[in-house]
Amino acid sequence: MLTLTQELYDRIVEHARKDHPDEACGVVAGPAGTGRPERFVPMLNAARSPTFYEFDSKDLLALYREMDDRDEEPVIVYHSHTATEAYPSRTDVTYANEPGAHYVLVSTADTDGLGEFQFRSYRIVDGVITEEEVQVVAAY
């Protein structure tokens, strides 16, 4: 189960809506070994595409160095789908290289930024997709 604060939930959804019609992407880092998402890190979709996301390699390297310096790890890796449901694509599974991370997908399909959306979380390990419950809390 993924547990995250209402603030983090809202920030992920806001980023997905703001970048629509392009896919949004980012990371929520947390203290290593805790599994607790704390630090919201929105990233630039270097592909600037409505059907694909790609972290800028320099930005990603800088983020991993910063997380290492802060004794953090990626707890959530998130991105949006702009035209399909919030379910990992084959490409998403191929790029899922953090077995300990929660992979969050927000679908902004058929929304105008004010309507409904999907927020779902998965574990993706060795190509196997497992959906998990999402619990939103006021604070930890």
DSSP helix fraction:
10-25%
- Sum up the overall morphology in one term: globular
Termini Cα gap: 15 Å
Major sheet size, sense and barrel closure: 6 strands, mixed
- Overall pLDDT level: 94
What is the string of SSEs from the N terminus onward?
EHEEHEHEEEE
Number of helices: 3
CATH superfamily: Cytidine Deaminase, domain 2
- Backbone structural class: alpha/beta
**Sheet with the most strands: spatial strand order:** 3-2-4-5-6-7
Q: How many strand segments?
A: 8
> What is the CA-based Rg, rounded?
14 Å
The CATH class, by name, is Alpha Beta
CATH topology: Cytidine Deaminase, domain 2
Portion of residues in beta strands equals 35-45%
Kindly give the count of domains: 1
Structure commentary:
The chain is of the alpha/beta class and 140 residues long. It has one domain (2-137): Cytidine Deaminase, domain 2 (3-Layer(aba) Sandwich). The chain is 24% helix and 35% strand. It has three helices and eight strands; from the N terminus they run βαββαβαββββ. The chain has helices at residues 6-19, 57-69, 90-95, and strands at 2-5, 25-31, 39-43, 72-81, 102-107, 118-125, 128-132, 134-137. The strands form two sheets. Strands 3-2-4-5-6-7 form a six-stranded mixed beta sheet. The longest helix is centred in the first third of the chain and has 14 residues, at 6-19. The radius of gyration is 14 Å and the shape is globular. It starts with a strand and ends with a strand. The mean pLDDT is 94. Pfam families: Prok-JAB. This is M67 family metallopeptidase. It comes from Streptomyces antimicrobicus. Keywords: Hydrolase, Metal-binding, Metalloprotease, Protease, Zinc.
